[in-house]
Amino acid sequence: MTPSPLTVDVHAHVLLPEIEALVEGTAGLAEARALDARRNGPAALAVSGPMVRERIPKLTDAQARLSAMDAQGVDVQLVSPSPSHYHYWADQETAAKLSRLANEATAAHCAAAPDRLRGLGLVPLQHPGQMADALEHALEQGLLGVEISSHAPGRELSDPAYEPFWDRAERTGALLFLHPFGCTLDERLDRWYLSNTVGQPTENAVALSHLIFSGVLDRHPGLKLIAAHGGGYLPTHIGRSDHAWSARSDAGAGCAHLPSSYLRRLWFDSLVHDPHVLRELVRSVGADRVLLGSDFPFDMGSEDPVGALRAAHLSDADFHAVRGANAAALLDLA
Predict the structure, then answer these.
(1) Dihedral angle computed from the Cα positions of residues 237, 240, 245 and 250, in that order, rounded to the nearest 10 degrees
(2) pTM over 0.85
(3) Measured distance CA(165)–CA(10) in Å, rounded
């Protein structure tokens, strides 16, 4: 692949105060906040609050974002709403308003620099019947697709109720960014920020496994899905999935091919925080399936995503593919 002149970061977030204003005082919000507090624990919340507050300019002001991108050597960001805006507890009416508002607000943020900022919207994962229309609304705003979590309350991504959404995403060519928020291991992870360091890669692995083993990727081979955090634990431990598929009738019943083969139908960001793991990710899924990601501007992200990529000592061709060429092709950047 010819080296792209662009450096493209596919994992960057925007904070939308309008969303929190919309849900304030709504039935269910207090319970959701209490669950989030239990899952994270008091020590994590004490750190996260000030961390987010000091980053609000980069999260909300396009010029502050662009200045930070310049300092990182990033030309283009794919901007998605903070996962804290999912609010999958919301009723149908609130959820419909929320997705439309998120789509419109993200599009407005990106419109400040359309040559450098591309956006993703939200869909109500808790209400499958609304998702296809919410995706269409996001595309109508000029967004490239939507961001989803690893599950909604009572629903895994293998749920048949999501089939119309997968179909619409495949037919439109929309991008789907799989970014977990909240791990169902709950209070087991409420110390030392295990809710994030263990919870996020666990949720990525579970969600991707549901998509693979249920046959979603057989039925919708054209889905354009990017997994955050390098896909979590799954790509580097996919051999266990392959063994189960081959050795057990229950594991192999839902999908047509070895689980590892489906990894080359997906895309993965580079945010794994270890050059050796990044090299293994590239080996497992192919250099053409890895995209630069930073989790801008949160503290669990990388302030120097290109430097982190360089530390993996990939070949020149693979380095430039991950730095920007893969994303430029996927996002159809000129």
Answers:
(1) -110
(2) yes
(3) 22
Residue with the two structure tokens 């705003």: 141
- SS3 state of residue 267: strand
> Per residue in 171-214, pLDDT tens?
999 999 999 999 999 999 999 999 999 999 999 999 999 999 99
The answer to whether 327 and 78 have CB atoms below 8 angstroms apart is: yes
Beta strands in the chain (DSSP E): 8-14, 76-81, 117-119, 121-122, 145-148, 151-152, 155-156, 175-178, 224-227, 267-269, 290-291
Torsion angle in degrees (nearest 10) through CA of 64, 70, 72, 76: 90
Give the CA-trace dihedral at 318, 176, 76, 106, to 10 degrees. -170
How many other β-carbons are positioned within 10 Å of the β-carbon of residue 53? Answer: 9
- Please say if the pLDDT value at position 1 is more than 60: no
SS (H, E, C) 271-317: CCCCHHHHHHHHHHHCHHHEECCCCECCCCCCCCHHHHHHCCCCCHH
Domains parsed from the chain with CATH numbers: 8-330 (3.20.20.140)
Place of tokens 């999501």: 162
Q: Give 229-243 as a 3 state SS string.
A: HHHCCCHHHHHHHHH
Tell me if residue 219 falls in helix, strand or coil: helix
Provide, for the chain, the percentages of residues in helix, strand and coil under a 3-state DSSP scheme, each rounded to the nearest 5: 55, 10, 35
Contacts of residue 201, defined as CB under 8 A and 6 or more positions apart, other chains included, come to 229, 230, 232, 233
